[in-house]
Design brief:
Radius of gyration: 23 Å
Bound molecules: zinc ion
Strand content: 15-25%
Largest sheet: 9 strands, mixed
Number of helices: 15
Length: 483
């Protein structure tokens, strides 16, 4: 039965349950209908709660340690300054559409990150994601699909907006244009290409949140009241709601649709200067103390007398300078575990600018993932429940910044995204037949096994094989409700 159905995932980057299921739900007629008839809940994201790796955790069922992906940027091996940005080739584990392809099913994959360069997968039509350098590149599989995408989007498909600038009018304009084109392409693909599985990703919500949060959230520490962006959240969410309504019509009665996000968002309190703090604690030394604000890479670090340093971002990555591992390592490898413990304790006692103890969380990749492949940090640190981001730059007059150090940004990520599933054939989905509509405890790793289970894949001799190495489990109450 189930295998004849189609399944669609509409991925909305960065959408928190508080926005979609509370603040704005009444303004969103299509999503409200899905919400009332379907099953919803929070979707707990992975560590770290970052776009890359989160979508790949969702689509492979495997944690970031297995994927070896801990963010966009990575340090190359144990070098001090050499880094790289993750792209699609960094993902070695199989995604849902790759597994489906092996079983003769067709998929449409629009913009799921990291999706550039587009992989060549049989039975798939793929358009790459927001990390694509530009429309001059090959950004589709098959290659000929590019011409169709460009035609549908008026010759100028938009992968991403330039969002860390003060020109907010321009961001706003680009945001709507980009999303409009994304849904034009989505509609086109859903109508003209064969598919059993359709998955799309919209980055616009994330950009809206980062660029405009302080204008529409009165609880933001730097709330700016009464601008033309006061209701921009509502305006954008409604705009997407309307496009989702159109897409649902195209998907038809045979399609089960999921609305999912990779993490949530909340207002940013500030940025904490991790390297300056490490310097103050005696872990990091400079040959020449930075006199102006500098990227850490540009600072003259005295590596022979430095035992740890950090990276900025929505969370901090901490690296130790270990003898025999780093070029000028100073920490005896046997002391590394002790050093991690000592530093973790110090991090736990950091206070914010008002003297209140921050709710900091220190994570060790090996411990949380079981296995930590690739270029992992020694420690991962969330400052004050992620309300403070990490500033890697140095030369600031204080440890506390109230503007992001890498360009205007007003929001940070939070640990819960959204989960919503809707079956147009079933007007009143409920969990375990008892009328409950709120799913509890769903995690981002659970999506891939749940999708595969829904497809059934009759004829697969050993179904367990499909789930080997996955960290997620199938959401069986959802599957029973949809059956
Ligand atoms: Zn994201």
């Amino acid at each position: 039965m189930m295998m004849k159905r189609k399944i669609a995932v509409i991925g909305l980057d960065s959408v928190p349950p508080e926005m979609m299921f509370q603040k704005l739900l009444d303004k969103l007629p299509n999503i409200k209908r899905m919400y009332e008839r379907g099953i919803h809940g929070s979707l707990e994201t992975c560590h770290p709660p970052i776009t890359v790796p989160a979508w790949m955790v969702m689509m492979t069922g495997k944690n970031p340690g297995k994927l070896g992906i801990y963010g966009f940027r990575h340090r190359r091996g144990f070098s001090y300054n050499d880094g790289y940005i993750v792209n699609s080739t960094s993902v070695k584990e199989k995604t849902v559409w790759e597994i489906l392809s092996e079983h003769g099913k067709s998929s449409i994959v629009l913009g799921v990150p990291p999706g550039y360069p587009p992989k060549q997968v049989k039975n798939c039509n793929i358009v790459s994601c927001f990390i694509t350098p530009g429309i001059e590149k090959t950004f589709t599989h098959p290659q000929e699909l590019k011409d169709e995408v460009l035609e549908v989007s008026g010759g100028n498909y938009i992968f991403d907006v330039t969002f860390r600038t003060e020109n907010r009018e321009k961001i706003k304009e680009e945001l709507f244009e980009m999303t409009s084109k994304r849904f034009d392409v989505a509609e086109y693909l859903a109508q003209t290409k064969p598919w059993d599985f359709f998955v799309m990703h919209e980055i616009g919500f994330d950009r809206l949140h980062h660029a405009f949060w302080k204008f529409f959230d009165p609880s933001h520490p730097k709330y700016v009241k009464g601008t033309q962006y006061e209701k921009l959240d509502e305006e954008y969410y409604r705009f997407v709601d309307e496009r989702i309504g159109r897409l649902l019509e195209i998907f038809g009665e045979e399609c089960i649709t999921f609305l999912l996000s990779d993490h949530g968002s909340k207002g940013m309190s500030g940025a904490f200067c991790v390297n300056q703090w490490l310097e103050a604690e005696g872990y990091l030394r400079f040959k020449k103390k930075p006199q102006t604000v500098l990227d850490f890479d540009k600072a003259e670090v005295d590596w022979e007398r430095t035992s740890a340093w950090g990276w900025g971002g929505y969370y901090a990555r901490i690296f130790f300078n270990v003898r025999g591992r780093e070029k000028n390592g100073v920490i005896d490898p046997e002391r590394l575990e002790d050093e991690k413990k000592k530093l973790s304790q110090k991090i736990s006692s950091i206070k914010d600018n008002s003297g209140r103890k921050m709710k900091n969380l220190v994570l060790e990749p090996e411990r949380i993932y079981g296995v930590a492949s690739g270029d992992k940090p020694d420690l991962m640190v969330y400052f004050d429940d992620l309300n403070w981001r990490s500033a890697g730059t140095v030369g600031h007059p204080s440890l506390y910044l109230f503007e992001n150090d890498t360009g205007p940004d007003d929001s940070v990520h939070s640990m819960n995204g959204i989960f919503l599933v809707y079956d147009p054939k079933k007007r009143d989905l409920s969990l375990d037949g008892n009328g409950a509509k709120e799913l509890e405890g769903a995690r981002i790793e659970d999506i891939a096994p749940t999708l595969l289970e829904l497809f059934g894949l009759d004829g697969v001799k050993d179904k367990k094989e499909l789930f080997v190495g996955m960290d997620g489990r199938t959401l069986s109450s959802v599957i029973r409700a949809l059956d």
